[in-house]
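Today's session is about reading a structure prediction critically. Students often jump straight to the picture, but the first step is always the sequence itself: look for stretches that repeat, for charged clusters, for runs of hydrophobic residues. Only then move on to the predicted structure, which in these notes is written as discrete structure tokens rather than atom positions. Here is the chain we will use throughout the hour.
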Amino acid sequence: MDEVSKFIFGSGNGYNGFDRVAFWTSLLGLIALYQLIGLKKVSKADFINQFTKDFFNASTQNLIILLNYNALDFKVKEVNLGNDVPCEHFPYFEVNRKSVKQLPIDGKNAKKYLYRDNYSGFEMDDLLLGLFEDIGCFEKQGLIGIQAVYDTFSWYIETAWNSPAIKNYIEYSQNLEKDGDDIYENFKYIFTKSESFGKAKLNGDWIWFWKLKWFVSNKILKR
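Below is the predicted structure for this chain, in token form.
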């Protein structure tokens, strides 16, 4: 113990070549880094818990149900404004009542939430697609990790992305702009990354190796 004490605190003449200041500075730095990582994990957990509360509500749940059972049809209504003003176009999602009536949902809830005639494109963006855009953006910024995204939102992201109605809506929205490929780019990004992560996880691949491959293929090779 005496030798250990001399080594750590600097007494004695046997360790003149050892820079104790550098040693303690490095050790304290490592401790601070460890604590910072711990705080970052807690911060991410708090962030995703709050976002989850905002995400899971009756409105988003109803849209997901309708999309999952292909009970929404994307349509565009031409709006004649008169006075030689060019017509505007109003994108919306018509509820397919034939599909809805087959769902074993309590009559009161079905009437209140599902038996609507339609949802506007604005509602779809505000209630659902905008949230997926946010998830993609937050993951890019490191506010949430892909593991949390996959565990919490992957099924909802996949259900929406693979919906024919949503595919048609995204294509319509992108075609409105000359350079419209960046519309819903974060939604596409998080769907692609979550799907890739899920396949790696289910195949038993090393996640660290998957992260390396994803980084190389999406950060370096695409430059």
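Discussion point for the tutorial: Residues 56-220 form one domain.
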